[in-house]
Amino acid sequence: MSVMNVRRRLIPAALASALGLGALTACSSDSAATGNTDKFDVVASFYPMAFLAQQIGGDHANVTSLTEPGQEPHDLEISTKQRAQLEEADAALYLKGLQPAVDEAVGQTGIKTKIDAATLTHLEDHGTGGHSHEGEEGHSEESEEEEHGRDPHVWLDPVKYAEIAQGVGKAFEKADPDHAADYKKNTEALVTKLKDLNGDFENGLKNTKTKVFFTNHAAFGYLAERYGLTQEAISGMDPESEPSGARVRELQQEAKADGVTTVFYETLVSDKTAKTLARDANLKTDVLDPIEGITDKSRGDDYFQVMEANLKALRTALGAK
Questions:
Q1: Count of CB atoms within 10 A of residue 206's CB?
Q2: pLDDT value of position 220
Q3: Each residue of 165-178: pLDDT tens digit?
Q4: What is residue 148's predicted lDDT score, i.e. its pLDDT?
Q5: How many Å apart are CA 158 and CA 196, to the nearest integer?
Q6: What pLDDT is attached to residue 237?
Q7: How much is the CA Rg of the chain, to the nearest whole Å?
Q8: Global pTM value
Q9: Where are the beta strands (DSSP E) in 207-290?
Q10: Which residues have a Cβ under 8 Å from the Cβ of 203 and sit 6 or more positions away?
Q11: Where does residue 256 fall: left (phi above 0), alpha (psi -120 to 50 degrees), or beta otherwise?
Q12: What is the pLDDT of residue 177?
């Protein structure tokens, strides 16, 4: 199935955590907090976009997110109040292809500055990830027939996230020229931090016993490609689907062949399938967070802290030296 059609479980909203330069404004239900303020009012589609807007906008921006903390972003439906938010905002920042309801709502509004992060970097089709061993035919027929769309999880690659940040910074400068110098300065600082994070991942994953890791769903294709790893997703692009018996046996065999030690799951969806596979294959489990939202279950208060936690988890699972 395509990413556009993925439907995933909603998790009750948890308390929002502080973000870098300051907490985001209360979420979409509070329309009065969004538009017509004395700041540059930005409506972001979900956490990775909101984080960029807050870091780049700094004190000049009033940032709100359409997706509540703890809500699975793919399932977002736009309310009447949220449509009003978009109409009142100075800018909308979103990632086309991830949240169909947001794409539609933004397209129907008269908002002057519409920033589609998908146009600021190159999106690829990673399918479900994976590879074949010599003498094997690859994944099951069921996996081969699955339709793939462009992978939207670009923020998990610090290099691509930095490309998006640069584009967002330029858009802010154009939309709010009175504060262009500050937006440029903030963008440069953010890009520097992302370059440092990329260096941490490059060095941390350079020398490992295995290059293969198992995930609940195929969210880490860009990260795997960037650092020479192979992602094997249990459920493809949809973490709610149950893998076939053939797929489970395939993963069990691969775990032995490639020295896989850990099955990763995430905080916003059920860990049942990952833990069942781990138990049957005698593997460990751990969290690898796709950072689609920050909650009290997250291993950190912002993007950078959670990415560092992801690096630590990967180093342990892959046997980094």
A1: 11
A2: 96
A3: 999 999 999 999 99
A4: 47
A5: 9
A6: 52
A7: 20
A8: 0.82
A9: 212-215, 230-233, 262-265, 284-287
A10: none
A11: alpha
A12: 98
pLDDT at site 72: 85
From CA 107, how far away is CA 198, in angstroms rounded?
A: 34
Query: Angle, to 10 degrees, between the axis of helix 303-318 and the axis of helix 180-204?
Result: 10
- Tokens 């640069």 locate to 166
Distance CA 189, CA 112 (A): 27
Low-confidence ranges of the chain (pLDDT < 70): 1-36, 127-148, 236-244
> Per-residue b/e over 280-293, b at no fewer than 16 CB within 10 Å?
ebebebbbbbbbbb
- The closest alpha carbon to 205, from 172, 229, 176, belongs to 229
CB atoms inside a 10 Å sphere around CB 141: 11
CA 302, CA 45: separation in Å to the nearest integer? 16
What would the two tokens of residue 292 be?
Answer: 């689609």
Q: 45 near 54, Cβ under 8 Å?
A: no
Q: Which amino acid is at 11?
A: I
- What's at 110, amino acid-wise? G
CA 95 from chain centre, in angstroms, equals 10
Q: Tell how far CA 215 is from the center of its chain.
A: 14
Positive or negative torsion for Cα 163, 167, 172, 177: positive
